[in-house]
């Protein structure tokens, strides 16, 4: 009967603050969904099962699995740590309850106690940790009263019964781990899957025993023949030839093993380089996006710096005239004072001129009369025709005529009439101020537009920074641990091509030289064995020896064929089931899926091909398609087993690479394979919605296959020491 998890509870475990009853998720047979945004407890939830099965957690900082004993200070809720006084203690733990069959219910509690020794709550040296004894309790379903289990072996069996160790890799997965569950390029990976599903190990053991028995039977026959007829040259030659063929076959099989290892290593390297190269390509895509964005950011930052530098100039630049802001009334005051200054200046100037040359300013003749010609005639005639009297040379009358004639020429440079004449100063001031007071009406608008420009530039810079940060985070998330991140594309391509060449060389040697030679040697060995058998019959030895050898030879050959048949049959069955699941998984997607094809290699590994309807290989599928392919094989491994699969699926972010169609197909398909599924996802989360789930989440909420749905919450903008995960049960 299937194991069904009834509940899981947390006590001060990461941000699940509080006692077990405060953090209990009730679960049912069927599909259970926990929806949570980043940081709301998905991975922490999953870590509870890592602790339960392996005494490990996944460190979110290093992305490495570490022993629980080395992670105590990270596991405990920061809020709980902060509230624990020095020399006081707290308990951190997880509790899982599950039923198996129709009789028993089990409770498993793993916990530790931490005593605070110092003020720094995040320092390991500030805490003393004591791992508590594993608690395992059992009750009959009709009694509902737990009784403790004390035997350590029995405790381990109860934990293993939840999900057997051999099936955890298919039933207990996190995000991208689905990609590594089964590696078809490694013979041992597919063999392990087949071993879990069939009795092939027994066939292998039987075949090995029969090989040993056959060899022993032949040696017995050989001894009898030599004892009875040591002179049988023909038989001795046949035996000698048989031994040579067997030695040659053994050598070729050794070569085959070596080349298979070379091929396996080259394929493994190629697969690793495939991932590295694929990620390098992804990083290049991000780099191609980041490069123009970084350039735009630099340009915007330079534009902003230039903008700031020019702001001060706008106070004194006549095109902006900001310094004139608030001086609107001063212009009118200046104009009035300037008019008064000009009037008084001219008064002083006029008075000064009158004082110095009264005759120039007081005469009764109109200006320019008499005319110059008439005045010259009067001077020449020494007679004034205006007043009709003489004006002899040297007399005052004569001198007056001369002065009148030369009156325009006497306007020489004026003498200063005040100590400090500010006419030019005020004139220049007015001229220089002209651009400023002409701009008075537009200064406020200019300042507002400048401020808007500043805000626009800042917003542009901030948007670019956020976009760059987002792309950089996405880029960093696809780095491959264990590889030189600075390894150049040239090195990757060179290594990749080298691996491909080694694969091609090994395959050519195996397929074109070694395998044909081995097949030929096997034919030769079969012929020589037939000859040995016929010679055996002509020798005077007991019949039982020959019959024993012949029977064991036939049995060994039959066992070898049976083993291969079981293996090939299971591969075909896996292919059949994988295609069924693959079609179900992608049925809600707009793109039509291809066909999954398994092809056995001479070294026993499997080529996992993806073909279109015409048998052509399909390349460049999306990450969602790639993961669906692998997940369909995982489901095939489970469904191809004749027995009912009795273990739940525990999955953290398995649909992170899926679109909406893939996600719907995923939830529909897992219900047909797993008796219970507990899936932790963020893709259904929607912050703006009242229920905190998107439209797909609401559709799944109504799906009868979905038995429970929770949404996790964390306080907005909370400090780490106040971070607490709470939940809402939607179903």
Automatic annotation (TrEMBL):
Q: Which residues form a coiled coil?
A: 228-303, 447-481
Q: Which Pfam families match?
A: AAA_23
Please provide the Gene Ontology terms (biological process) for this protein: double-strand break repair
Q: Where is the Rad50/SbcC-type AAA domain?
A: 8-249
Q: Which GO molecular function terms does the record list?
A: ATP hydrolysis activity
Quick check: keyword Coiled coil in the entry? yes
Q: Which UniProt keywords apply?
A: Coiled coil
Which superkingdom? Bacteria
Q: What is the name attached to this protein's record?
A: DNA sulfur modification protein DndD
């Amino acid at each position: 009967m299937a194991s069904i998890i009834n509940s899981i509870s947390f006590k001060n475990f990461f941000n699940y603050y509080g006692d077990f009853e405060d953090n209990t998720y009730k679960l049912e047979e069927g599909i259970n969904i926990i929806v949570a945004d980043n940081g709301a407890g998905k991975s922490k939830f999953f870590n509870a099962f890592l602790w339960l099965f392996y005494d490990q957690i996944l460190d979110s900082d290093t992305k490495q699995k570490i022993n629980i004993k080395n992670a105590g200070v990270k596991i405990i809720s920061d809020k709980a740590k902060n509230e624990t006084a020095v020399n006081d203690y707290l308990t951190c733990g997880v509790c899982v309850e599950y039923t198996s069959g129709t009789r028993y219910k089990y409770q498993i509690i793993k916990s530790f106690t931490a005593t605070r020794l110092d003020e720094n709550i995040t320092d390991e040296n500030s805490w003393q940790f004591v791992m508590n004894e594993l608690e395992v309790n059992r009750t009959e379903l009709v009694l509902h009263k737990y009784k403790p289990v004390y035997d350590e072996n029995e405790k381990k069996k109860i934990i293993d019964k939840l999900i057997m160790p051999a099936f955890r890799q298919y039933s207990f997965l996190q995000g991208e781990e689905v990609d590594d569950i089964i590696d078809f390029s490694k013979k041992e990976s597919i063999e392990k899957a087949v071993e879990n599903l069939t009795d092939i190990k027994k066939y292998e053991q039987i075949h090995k025993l029969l090989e040993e028995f056959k060899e022993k039977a032949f040696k017995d026959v050989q001894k009898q023949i030599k004892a009875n007829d040591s002179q049988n040259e023909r038989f001795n030659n046949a035996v000698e030839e048989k031994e040579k063929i067997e030695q040659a076959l053994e050598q070729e099989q050794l070569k085959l093993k070596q080349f298979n290892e070379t091929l396996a290593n080259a394929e493994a390297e190629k697969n690793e380089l495939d991932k590295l190269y694929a990620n390098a390509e992804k990083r290049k895509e991000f780099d191609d996006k980041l490069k123009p964005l970084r350039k735009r950011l630099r340009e915007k930052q330079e534009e902003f710096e230039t903008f700031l530098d020019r702001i001060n100039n706008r106070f004194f630049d006549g095109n902006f005239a900001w310094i004139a802001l608030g001086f609107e009334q001063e212009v009118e005051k200046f104009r009035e004072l300037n008019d008064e200054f000009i009037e008084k200046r001219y008064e002083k100037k006029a008075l000064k001129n009158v004082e110095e040359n009264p005759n120039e300013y007081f005469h009764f003749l109109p200006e320019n009369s008499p005319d110059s010609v008439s005045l010259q005639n009067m001077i020449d005639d020494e007679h004034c025709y205006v007043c009709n009297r003489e004006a002899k040379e040297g007399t005052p009358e004569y001198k007056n005529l001369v002065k009148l004639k030369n009156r325009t020429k006497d306007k020489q440079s004026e003498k200063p009439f005040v100590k400090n004449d500010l006419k030019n100063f005020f004139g220049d001031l007015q001229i220089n101020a002209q651009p400023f007071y002409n701009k008075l009406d537009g200064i406020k608008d200019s300042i507002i537009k400048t401020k808007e420009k500043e805000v626009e530039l800042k917003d542009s810079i901030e948007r670019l920074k956020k976009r760059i940060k987002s792309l950089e985070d996405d880029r960093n998330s696809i780095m491959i641990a264990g590889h030189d991140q600075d390894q150049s594309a040239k090195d990757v391509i060179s290594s990749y091509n080298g691996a491909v060449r080694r694969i091609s060389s090994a395959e050519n040697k195996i397929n074109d030289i070694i395998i044909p030679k081995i097949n030929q040697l096997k034919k030769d060995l079969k012929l020589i064995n037939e000859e040995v058998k016929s010679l055996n019959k002509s020798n005077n030895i007991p019949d039982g020896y020959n019959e024993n050898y012949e029977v064991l030879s036939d049995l060994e050959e039959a066992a070898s064929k049976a083993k291969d048949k079981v293996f090939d049959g299971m591969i075909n069955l896996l292919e059949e089931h994988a295609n069924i699941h693959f079609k179900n998984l992608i049925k809600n997607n707009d793109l039509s899926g291809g066909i999954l094809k398994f092809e056995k290699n001479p070294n026993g590994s499997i080529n996992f091909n993806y073909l279109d309807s015409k048998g052509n290989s399909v390349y460049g599928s999306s990450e969602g398609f790639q993961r669906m392919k692998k997940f369909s094989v995982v489901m095939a491994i489970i469904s191809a087993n004749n027995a009912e699969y009795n273990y739940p699926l525990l999955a953290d972010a398995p649909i992170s690479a899926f679109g909406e169609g893939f996600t719907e197909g995923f939830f529909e398909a897992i219900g047909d394979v797993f008796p219970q599924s507990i899936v932790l996802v963020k893709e259904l989360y929607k912050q703006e919605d009242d229920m905190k789930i998107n439209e797909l989440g609401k559709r799944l909420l109504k799906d009868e296959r979905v038995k429970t749905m929770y949404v996790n919450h964390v306080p907005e903008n909370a400090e780490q020491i106040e971070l607490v995960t709470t939940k809402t049960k939607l179903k």
